[in-house]
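Re: the multi-chain job from yesterday

Posting the exact lines I submitted so nobody has to dig through the queue logs.
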Amino acid sequence: MADVARLAGVAISTVSRALANPGRVNEKTRAKINAAARQLGYTPNAMARGLRVGKSNIIMIILPGSLYYGASQVIPQVLQSINKSLIQGGYNLMIANLDRDEISERHILDLAFGGSVRGAIILSSKLPEVDGRSLANSGLPIVSMLLDMSDAGLQSVVTNDREAVRDVTAELIRLGHRRFFYLAGPEGNYHDVERYGGVLEALEAAGLSEDSVHRSGGHLDYQHGFDIGVQAADDFAELTEKPTAVIATSDDMAISFVSRIQRTGLSIPGDVSVVSFDGSPVCEFCSPPLSTIKQPVEEMGRAAVDLLLDAIDQRQNTAAVRTVIRSSLILRESIAAPKN
Amino acid sequence: MADVARLAGVAISTVSRALANPGRVNEKTRAKINAAARQLGYTPNAMARGLRVGKSNIIMIILPGSLYYGASQVIPQVLQSINKSLIQGGYNLMIANLDRDEISERHILDLAFGGSVRGAIILSSKLPEVDGRSLANSGLPIVSMLLDMSDAGLQSVVTNDREAVRDVTAELIRLGHRRFFYLAGPEGNYHDVERYGGVLEALEAAGLSEDSVHRSGGHLDYQHGFDIGVQAADDFAELTEKPTAVIATSDDMAISFVSRIQRTGLSIPGDVSVVSFDGSPVCEFCSPPLSTIKQPVEEMGRAAVDLLLDAIDQRQNTAAVRTVIRSSLILRESIAAPKN
DNA sequence: CAGCTTATAGCAAACGTTTGCCAAAAACCG
DNA sequence: CGGTTTTTGGCAAACGTTTGCTATAAGCTG
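And the result, structure tokens for all chains:
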């Protein structure tokens, strides 16, 4: 910067202002300074600036470590959409993994308390906390996404899991289905609770008992989507009185489940109707094409970023703590009325 | 830090050394300092440290912007594996997108020249360069992954695309196939060149002419994997003399292609054999299960990180500039001998 | 215990910016 | 043209670390 100042024949402070604080310096000197900077190939040092102003321009996204985002269909899309929105706001995206070990917790806390990041978007239900330091009172703006953590006081961007599942279940009931097979993700997980809750609500509304749904899975996380479906197919084969409709909590498990039970001679939707959650593109090309509840991940990502930047800029977050973006059912051939 | 020093009854410099430079300070005072730090909930400021030592602990991964990594099957896995390796080395991963516009190029250059990042892993064939600043001579250690950029002097970690495709083509020829359908990704792209080259090599080795392969696609990038397959199926339907074997350059396009031509009454592998590239898990659950060439993305990610950290630590990179990690063919039911 | 070596602690100067405050220059006004 | 306001530029002090150098304390040796 000193070099630029010398070349342009001005003081260092003027250069700083010309580059960062437009308006504060004469248009003419500013042009001169820009020219000098370009000529010297000068780029301001981000860390020096960050140190001085006490702010970083990095946002971290905290991903649950167990969630293998190569396999899960939604995480990559979330990353993409968040990153895109952040860049437009002049921020950069850093990835942080929150595993079950203390190491990763400490790592994230160091990032937060060490001034490295300016805000966080969290996709995990656990807030890192160790040795008295806790993400919650790091002073860092945080917004939760996918999971509702408004109880913990976090702005949360979620979809209407419960309602969407309730509606699709109701639709299946309307078609005549009475026996259901529910394919669970990690048990007790927010999504599992909400989605299963949606099933139960629909049953109750139709005057059906809770016994009309058989629960399978629940002891693996979404990382093992395909495995869950495979195991569930075995589970399904054991049942004497077969359910006629399957509700899966992710596309992956639906796909492997369908593949396996077709192999046992069952046809879809002839013998069994199937619907799943996520809305991944591949569903369209399965045989039969799978009905799926499409999560609006792009919109959710955008919304999360908007909320976060608002919080950073201290704009009053008059908005609700919980932002819901509705899922939409994509109806395909995997659903039909039961045989008789 | 001053507070910690005061509480521990030592000088600031001693605190610094105790925290960063172990060994240089007495074990006893160090314990005292650690205790004080914990009690005060002190975390060293990363930017101040970075400024002082002139180094950041952030690595950026440069992704081609057009590549929609929610859709492409391999990018998420790459991210996962790279991040995991980096964390073990004490580094953080930042995502940077390289689009076709100058904005994103400038953005990346600012990151590189502004001291924000310590090294880069690049998955794009274009090195940002604008206004005389160029990533190539930023002094930043860079390694290329997936694409061979050893010509540009970059350490490159790739798989043996050409060889793998050549081998599988040869195998198809051995089974009796003589007419091929090649499903291209972005034309001129490194992967396209290599993989198509592999096909041609196998044909030549078997004494078959280049006319025995029909090329389809090539005008969309991998982002539109499914679309490519759909269009290719239309293309396929036009052909009077149908090929008996299809070689697709990504799983996505294979999946949509298969779905569509099955709909026209063709059976796989009865009428057409199909093999694709990537090795995504979903292939196992297609009907029929798809043969695919599995890219060793995890190993490639690890290797790329190893090379990068070596370069950062100035360890002599006596190793070859080009690191090849072999793909492996996963043979499933989508391949058989042609009908007659 | 004096004289030496070695381990440990402290001082203060960087690192490259931004910014509050003041001075100088320019513009405006009567 | 003198006086007043506004614009623009410069000085120097931060921001929170690390680290070369020096001073002190501790440990050893004869």
